[in-house]
């Protein structure tokens, strides 16, 4: 049996545990521009932030006690760039559209097509800013998680407009923690991903997005990477990452 066949059967088994609802108009942004790889080019404008997100995901995944075959929802899955991080899980990829994505289910973040207390975990990377009512999405995540289930979320704190007109929110650690606690989720860990100096560099690079500026982006990203150990302030950060848990 090929590895592709095994993965397909695993995904089919995962989908069998879900309960698809209507596939009509969705209240979450079209995700055609989502990240296709967890290893961005060093000349990319968002390189510093994406590398910081990967470091945060490594840290948060290591904090979770995993079991083989756990059922995990990749919310706003796009092309599934992070599922390799928990290879023994049974993944369900959910996305509002199929264009530029590889979902198992087409669904709405505000009405997840998953049964109550079904999921062991949820991964939601750079998606809640595209949901009109993110507190409702968090409530849905809480409903679908088993007691003790976990949710890893990455969200922007200061980032340019993107995927317009489906870009609705920016978050601080205090606002998002309160939003999660209001729907009964425990905040296990929440931190800014990138120090202020690197965040400012990253923000400025968005002004130099053309191919002609690739050498400039390379130099700036190298400087930002080299100075990371010297920087501490996170009062201004491009992004936040957090680990939530449904209480037992």
What are the main properties of this structure?
about 250 residues; alpha/beta; 7-stranded mixed beta sheet; 6 helices; 7 strands; globular; disordered N terminus
Provide a brief overview of the structure.
With 248 residues, the protein is an alpha/beta fold. Helix content is 30%, strand content 19%.
Structural features, described:
By secondary structure, the chain is of the alpha/beta class. The chain has 6 helices and 7 strands; from the N terminus they run ααββββαβαβααβ. It has helices at 3-16, 47-62, 134-144, 173-182, 196-205, 214-226; strands at 71-75, 90-95, 105-106, 119-125, 145-156, 186-192, 239-245. A 7-stranded mixed sheet has the order 3-2-1-4-5-7-6, sandwiched between helices. The longest helix is centred in the N-terminal third of the chain and has 16 residues, at 47-62. The termini are far apart.
Number of helices: 6
Shape: globular
What is the string of helix and strand elements? HHEEEEHEHEHHE
N-to-C terminal Cα separation, in Å?
39 Å
What is the secondary structure topology, with strand pairs?
Layout: H1 3-16, H2 47-62, E1 71-75, E2 90-95, E3 105-106, E4 119-125, H3 134-144, E5 145-156, H4 173-182, E6 186-192, H5 196-205, H6 214-226, E7 239-245
Parallel strand pairs: 1-2, 1-4, 2-3, 4-5
Antiparallel strand pairs: 5-7, 6-7
Helix pairs in contact: 5-6
């Amino acid at each position: 049996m090929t590895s592709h066949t095994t993965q397909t059967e695993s995904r089919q088994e995962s989908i069998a545990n879900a309960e698809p609802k209507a596939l009509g108009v969705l209240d979450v942004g079209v995700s055609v521009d989502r990240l296709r790889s967890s290893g961005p080019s060093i000349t990319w404008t968002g390189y510093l932030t994406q590398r910081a997100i990967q470091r945060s995901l490594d840290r948060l995944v290591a904090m979770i006690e995993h079991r083989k075959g756990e059922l995990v929802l990749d919310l706003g899955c796009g092309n599934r760039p992070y599922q390799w991080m928990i290879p023994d899980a049974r993944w369900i990829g959910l996305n509002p559209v199929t264009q530029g994505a590889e979902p198992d289910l087409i669904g709405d973040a505000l009405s997840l097509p998953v049964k109550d207390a079904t999921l062991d975990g949820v991964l939601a990377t750079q998606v809640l800013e595209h949901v009109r009512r993110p507190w409702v999405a968090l409530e849905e995540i809480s409903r679908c998680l088993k007691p003790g289930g976990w949710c890893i979320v990455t969200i922007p704190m200061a980032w340019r407009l993107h995927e317009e007109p489906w870009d609705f929110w920016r978050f601080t650690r205090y606002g998002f923690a309160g939003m999660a606690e209001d729907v009964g989720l425990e905040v296990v860990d929440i931190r800014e991903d990138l120090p202020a100096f690197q965040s400012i560099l990253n923000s400025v690079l968005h002004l130099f997005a053309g191919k002609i500026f690739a050498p400039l982006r390379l130099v700036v990203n190298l400087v930002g990477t080299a100075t990371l150990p010297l920087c501490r302030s996170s009062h201004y950060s491009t992004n936040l990452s957090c680990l939530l848990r449904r209480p037992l």
